[in-house]
Predict the structure.
Amino acid sequence: MKAGVLYGVGDIRYDDFPDPVCGDDDVIVKVSACGICGSDPPRILGQWKYALPAVPGHEFAGTIAETGKHIKHFHDGQSVVVQPLIPCGHCESCGAGHYSVCDTIQMLGADRPGGFSEYVRVPASNVSALDSGVNIVEAALLEPCAVSLYGVLGIAPTVGDTVAIMGCGTIGQLVLQWMRLCGVRRIIAVDISEKKLAEAKALGADDCVNGKETDAVEAVLELTHGRGVDIAMETAGSKITQEQCLLIARKRGKVGFLGIARSDILLKEKSFESIFRHELTLKGFWNSYSAPFPGAAWKKSIEAFCDGRIKFKPLISHRYPLAEVADAFRMIGARKEEYNKVLLLVS
């Protein structure tokens, strides 16, 4: 088969790769589309820590091409989405249903070949059926959608809350949509891109703050008459916004961290003191899984996508054929264009 094969840092090519072999408890998924996650460029262009050659990609959907002999609940041609995290099922975390923090976790697109390919071998337990007629290309965004909802469910917004979303990329825009569905009263979107802020506004943000043009903390406090927000959600993975969240949350407010740390974070005295003086609740969210596997975030995401309550199309900025995978990463690495979700179209 053809795949986007990584041979070394920055060296990803459209090349031949061995066809996957279906095990008794597996399915072979014919990939329709695979998203480029925000975590992919730093690893592929910077520091890949898994075996090489490798096939990245963990945000993908497609159709069933083959089923193992023990698998009776899927059929050829059925539309499916893949849960890329494969938990061990035996450690303390798995026993408690906390699969996202499994001790010996494996990931498709890292430890095993992933979705930058025509076909992927997947444990049947990691596949969910989709309604017939869904847009199978857009369904590739179900993985980041579940990640976003996992954070929203974990931070537990209530009707009438005021929420600030720090970072309006794919995860931020999905968090925004989920918060609106949860019944929060007011959403303040913060980013340094006017384009992303315009997209956030179109998705339902009540107020937009450009952190490049104004002090974001002062702006959020002014918008809330000095009180601060009930919930601050950090989705940018920036040490700047990660600290700002501590300063914009109200007394006894909540802060949710979804963005990955890319560097050390040294907190100013005032920022650190906000944690205990204001009795803040800080929660981190990693991946998207709970019991029964794959969990509520996945189940609710699939339902909301299939019935149209969550919109994926506005988030997709670029579509590349799989054969142009190297071009996609050159664009991302050089930041030649502003982008949101970049999809690789496979079949």
